[in-house]
Amino acid sequence: MSEQQSVPALHLSGLVKQFGSTPAVAGIDLVVPSGSFYGLVGPNGAGKTTTLSMATGLLRPDAGGAWVHGIDVWRDPVAAKRVIGNLSDGIRLFDRLTGEQLITYTAMMFGLPRPEIAPRVSDLLDLMDLRPAAGTIVADYSAGMTKKVALACALVHAPRLLVLDEPFESVDPVSAANIEDVLRGYTASGGSVIVSSHSMDLVQRMCDHVAVIAAGRVLAAGTVDEVRAGQTLQDRFVELVGGRHTSEGPQWLRQS
Amino acid sequence: MVATVLKLRYRALFNTLARRPWQLVGFIFGALWGLGILASVTAGIISLSIFGSLDAAAGVSILGGSALILGWVVAPIVATGMDTSIDARRLAPFPFTRRQTMLALAGTGITGIPGVVTTLVALISVILWLRWPLAALAGIPAALIGVAICVVASRLVGELSGGMGGNRRGRELIGTIVLVVIMLSGPLITGILALLDGGTGSLGDRFGAAAAVLPWTPLGAAWGVAPALAAGEGVLALARVAIALATLAVLGWAWSRAVDRSTSAPPRQSSRQVAAGKLGLFGVMPTGGVGATWARSLNAWLRDPRYLRQLLVVPIFPILFAFIGGVDGFGFAASPVLVAFMLAIGGYADISYDGTAYATVLATGIRGRDDRLGRLLGAASLGIPLVVIVSIVSCVLSGDAGRLSLVLGASLGVLLVGYGVSAVTSAMIIAPVAAPGDSPFKSVPGQTFVSGLLVFVVWAVIGVLSLPVLVIAVTGMVQGPAGWGLATLAVGLIVGCGAAVLGVFLGGRTFDRSGPELFDRIRSLPTT
Prior knowledge:
The complex is a heterodimer.
Chain A: H1 2-6, E1 10-19, E2 22-32, E3 37-41, H2 48-55, E4 63-68, E5 71-72, H3 77-82, E6 84-87, H4 99-109, H5 114-127, H6 143-155, E7 161-165, H7 173-188, E8 192-196, H8 200-206, E9 209-214, E10 217-223, H9 224-228, H10 233-241
Parallel strand pairs in A: 3-8, 3-9, 6-7, 7-8
Antiparallel strand pairs in A: 1-2, 1-4, 4-5, 9-10
Helix pairs in contact in A: 4-5, 4-6
Chain B: H1 2-19, H2 21-51, H3 54-78, H4 88-91, H5 98-111, H6 113-124, H7 133-164, H8 168-183, H9 185-197, H10 203-213, H11 225-230, H12 234-264, H13 289-303, H14 305-311, H15 313-325, H16 330-344, H17 350-354, H18 358-363, H19 368-397, H20 404-425, H21 447-465, H22 467-479, H23 484-523
């Protein structure tokens, strides 16, 4: 059991990815301990989505490797993907299906036994406040509802590791709070979450670990308290990444 | 201001082409094709103006001009993705008056490649009237009015169909209906003309009759001015000018209303609601990768216009051949095999239709052969019954039911071989296709050239692999079905099923190996 504990939920080692001549990820090492709630923060274009794609078997790395609970994602993708729940950012869903059909489809893809599917789908619809929209096709959902149904799909097979890319973007505050509770309960019972976000407040509040990445490299990683070193995460992030302007804006923009 | 918008549009076009070399190749071929048409039209007009009679010139000018306007009206319905880079709604945030907005939109319409070609053709057509100087002089403004009608009508229809874009299903339905009409337009026109004159008149007479009526309609009025003047009928010409101007005024008024509406009240999405708990096929299929993919694939074949479009060939081939060669002809007898050929290729680049939603397939870690088998079953659930029905119907109609096993064997053989080949190719080929929800007829620039070539390669492979079946079937056709019929059916099923199984196995291996690379290629596809 103690050996089981020591195997990290996600282990990234020396991940590298080039797109053309631009390096998107330039050697990322990361250890997400089992049972942790891990935040991944970085400015736009830092390589967060690319990193998470390589960690979940969607994008083959140029170098380096990824292990989920000790399973090599790129040696045995089928076994690895069984234990990953994945919410990708910026991809379409099969949006011609209704929300209920989409979650059911995902459950079937993971081969859940038929009697278990309906109750799980029903729970998830309630959880995401999607019950009234269950019969609406996903193409007609708002941005926030689409995010929530994608999150439901990531949860339906009860994965051991959740990889969530921008899960709270355009989700309303009430739903976000509900989802937050669920994720807390999930990590408390031994599940692990890695979440990318632009909201420092949210990461500081929810996560116990955080990694700051910029230009495809890890600038700082560890527990939230270690990384923020007495400052707010927001201030520490700006200090690490740089690029903050202090001017009051150009003269022509000022109204008086 | 208008100039800025025009510049913006060309900037956007060049940026797209500069980023995607293949699209540039397709674009160049498209431009060359346009130039070729322009050159041959010019040559035709010049020779007609020298050698043709006034009647012939009038007929060509009126019919051609009317067809031109009709084309501009239909284009925005058929190709909703035509030129969405600039429309009224995108200009809405800027402080433009309605007049400025309309000028900018009309300007982008005229300066696009179709607009330039139309304007040139319209002006070149004035050559027809050089023998009658007055007609030629009046022909220039008349032609410009005609071009203006083209552009304004097209913008109006575009704005209206965009307004109906609030009702996605409505737009998809209209698009599908229009395609059916276009594909069947040959037989339809023949039928209508036959009705009009009782089937007695020659083709020339029919065109003559049309050329007499069209100048009194909005379609032909502008193009009928010069011919009337050339014939020395000044009053007639004046009346046609009035009709053309009135058309333009009415269109312009309607368009300004539409622009107003779309800038101040963008269309809302209306949503289709089914009762919760209605899972459709997802409640029926067995759980697991095969069942889930099967349900999703069959769902797409039944609902997605991009798939439905491929089913249109099912009635069209037999009908076409019945028209051309009658129900006794060889073409009609062989049409089920052609239908099978067309249906089989429907999924040759199936993953492309998933778009980036393919990521959710990839993320579940489905085995390649499960995915292949699911998609094959989805296509076959519809394809096999359709081919069987077409075979039976065609045999019964031609009064030769004894041929059924022959036709059935050949068409099922081809269909199954094609499914097998598609199971492999769709794990290899990513073609730029219309995105889900876009018009199924929207062509992605540069698409036709490259993927058109690939389609022929895939067809050739299917043809070669189904040779054993086809050879036996043709032999049976020549020597009479007795004895050969059952042999064809048996060989067709054996070869077909063998190819399908092999295809699922080989395609599955390719899928397992290169799943992430396929996703990478989908993501880097041009999206507009």
